[in-house]
Amino acid sequence: MPQDAASTERQRPPGAAPLAAQRWWRIMDARIGIVPVPVALVVAGVAAIYVRIGQVPSDILMNIAVLSTGGFLCGEIGKRVPGLRHLGLAAILATFLPSYLRYAHLLPTPLVKSISEFTDSSNFLYLFIASIIVGSILGMDRRVLISGFLKIFVPLIAGSGVASVVGCAMGTALGLGFNHTLFKIVVPIMAGGVGEGAIPLSVGYAQFSHQPQGDLFAEVLPAVMLASLTAIVFAGALNFIGKRYPNLSGEGRLQPGEEDVPLAGDEPPAAGPAIQTVGAAVVMAVTLYLVGALTQKLWNWPAPVVMLALAVAMKLARVASPSLEQGAYANYRFFSACVTYPLLFAIGVAKTPWEKLMAAFNLPTIATIVATVAALMGTGFLVARFVGMYPIEAAIVAGTHSGQGGTGDVAILTAGNRMQLMPFAQIATRIGGAITVTLALIAYARFGR
Fold this sequence. Notes:
75% helix; 2 strands; mainly alpha; 2 domains
């Protein structure tokens, strides 16, 4: 043993771990997000071998490892780029980098197939949304819950109106034509995403215009995707502004006086909720979503909106005990911290076609989309003070109205570091999107053909 190493060993306190073990532990504690670096290397090696034999499992075990490693790697890269990290680059890279890698065939086909099958079959997105919505609502101060839900419609309605005027004026001035700008760009931006917005819009347009639905879908989809990307960048910028000017930001609270804890008048236990209580809260959140999914099956009511309404009713009626509320809030914090970037990576691979995003990259369309989203979020920012809300929170919620559905909500709120606003984002996306689609199809039937 070298002289200095032997000296160090002699100085080690009795019972302390050997120096070699301590060094290894420091390596194990070096992480990519939440993933230890040695574990990430093992994941990469295991995935490479599975790709080599052409049989990558699409089960939850494989995808926990792959999505965690890939998602947090993209997020950590985005957090370390000077300047751009303040514009939500972590969320952008976690979503759009895997989309590009798939498009460029840099992600192996067996791995893409595994991630896509898992994302489509596991309902991964809605498990996340259920945990975030139920946890954030039950963790919210019930005294201000109902007023927040009523107030949020003011910036949403005002923002939608101003954005429609600004977007149509910009597109028309740049030669896109009023009808094309309104029905193919502005309306899809605020229609609630792909499944709830672009698809029903294209189906309705096809019925009234007798054009192929697939062609119409290809026309409206780029606006949805590029608008979501624009809102992500703006949300990241607003988060940065909020750090510089704290009087404009509630740091995730929609209005002054709002608190997350204590709940139901009781101080939370110092050690946090019991593990069994957190498990009970997970089952409760999933059950609320299943009730919403059943109402969608029976009566075509949007499942996330029904789940949101049930969670609000439980909070206001004090149905859940204080300990269960604590468990739901702990579950929300876990999903927000540990599941967001893996989910964004899965969305990028399975649900974000790069070629559709690129189809919108011409100057008139880009200018129209950016102007529409800027007007939507800017109006939310300006009117917030009139209804007693924080401007940055109101602007970010308004921005989710231009997002790519539930996937866009996750990315926008992640970029803005405001995941606790998910219940209000769902109102903007689901209810605001449904109203937009309905009014647009009525208008298109009369004037759009």
